[in-house]
Amino acid sequence: RTDPSFDLIHGQVPSFSHRQTGNDDPGETLFSVWQVHLLTPSCDAPVVPMLSSEEKVAVSSAYHAVTEMSDDVERLFNQMPDISTYTDYLDMIECPMYLNLIQERLSNDYYSSMSSVIADFDLICDNALKYNEEESDIYELARQMRDKFVSLVT
């Protein structure tokens, strides 16, 4: 709710947070709990850690190097696999991750540390290794992507 005791992280309001229906106050703004910090009168707004400028450059450079490895990287890993085609994907993969989501998170200063970026990138690769057969080209490409990304950001 819009309330002076709430502070949005980075002042950003996700587009899904606005609601106007039925008996709701048309000026009411709803926020997800992970988007706000409760402030007490005795404290200042919390400092939210973010990647440094150097880390952002390193991640961006590594991200582009990985996407340029092969045309298959973007084709296979930019979006979540189509679950109407791969109907068992969500049965096997608990937490889908894909390159465009990492890029979106980078653009929105979502990441607080280099390890959190690496964890999301590892998740893409782990998911590909889990879902695909060890002998497949996708499996091998995921291994190569991980090796390249980690070598460039660490």
Your description of this structure?
The structure is a single chain. The protein is built from six helices and two strands, in the order E-E-H-H-H-H-H-H. The chain is mainly alpha-helical and 154 residues long. It has two domains: 1-48, no CATH class; 53-153, Histone Acetyltransferase, Chain A (Up-down Bundle). The longest helix is centred in the C-terminal third of the chain and has 18 residues, at 114-131. It is globular, with a radius of gyration of 19 Å. The model is unreliable at 1-23 (pLDDT under 50). Residues 69-139 form the Bromo domain. This is Bromo domain-containing protein. It comes from Thalassiosira oceanica (Marine diatom).
Notable traits:
154 residues; mainly alpha; Histone Acetyltransferase, Chain A; 2 domains; 6 helices; Bromo domain-containing protein; Bromodomain; bromodomain; Bromo_WD_repeat; Bromodomain-like_sf
